[in-house]
Amino acid sequence: MAVPCVRVKRSAGELTRHRLADAGLLAEQWDLDAEDEYVYIPVSDPTAVPEDLTVVPYDPPVRETQTMPADVLGTEPSYERLGDLAIIDVDEPEHEQNVADALWKSDLPIDGVLNRASKVKGQTRTRDWDVLRGDSTRTVHREYGSVFALDLDEVYFSPRLATERHRVIQQVTEGEHGFDMFAGVGPFAIPMAKKGATVVGSDVNETAIEYFRDNARRNGVEDEVTGIVGDVRNLASEYENWADRIIMNLPHSANEFLDTAVQLASDRAVLHYYDIQHESAPFEPGETAIRNAAEPSYEMSVETRHEVRTYAPHEVNIVLDVELQRVDSTEAE
After folding, report:
1. At the N or C end, where does the chain have fewer CB atoms within 10 A?
2. CA–CA separation, 110 and 131 (whole Å)
3. pLDDT at 163 > cutoff 50
4. Strand 129-133's sheet: what is its strand order?
């Protein structure tokens, strides 16, 4: 069966495999294969493979020696990988134990299984967890070449947004000023700094900013990144007219911070605005809110309207990439 594979010269095979592994893109159910002067590396998401690599269809050998969760459970369980943790979302106690057993007995390289025990809650956006296997909610997650230490019991982090974060990071250019208004442990801010931007990240969660600073050191960008504890609305005056790119990843509430985003924006800035809306009109409320906050000081241009994922029945998590261009005061008159 043909599956998407990265094709590289044999001499680059091991380096490329490590690169794809760091990005979480290896397809674990197939083995690498070599043919003539090329190595074929199976990948799980061809759309997320870096643009300098070539993806082709290829029929690699199935990894028959690896026991997968479905082999133990009999059906394919739904789970996410975050570092060395497997995360599930199961309501029935008996079924959650069966899924945890299957994950634990499989050959997945995991040290723990967690079940979501609550929705995201509170100002710090954390949730409760049931630790079904292992003994910790701490892990180190690798994503597109960056490394993030975190504790899910103390901070918010979603591995589901890896591809979306990568989409935004690809737009960053060297010399930019970036501001992540709800930075968490740094999954937007730190890769932005690695692309050559100077980045400020703020968060009301003190523990998240501690991890943010530690992760900046882990990724070698501590001199390019500033982490600040506090409500961004109380910090904006220090960075007025400073930011060329602004991340607003706080669905449900980002509209409450648009006046602050406009205050932060430089004469020409890009705003990445995340929202959750009904599928019938997912983009219009955000566009209206941004326009009301930005005009008449800025002209607004929507560059991208993108559905990130389904959030709930009939609700979608969306992003608007919006360019703000300051209007010359003499022209406005």
Report:
1. C
2. 13
3. yes
4. 80-82, 85-88, 112-116, 129-133
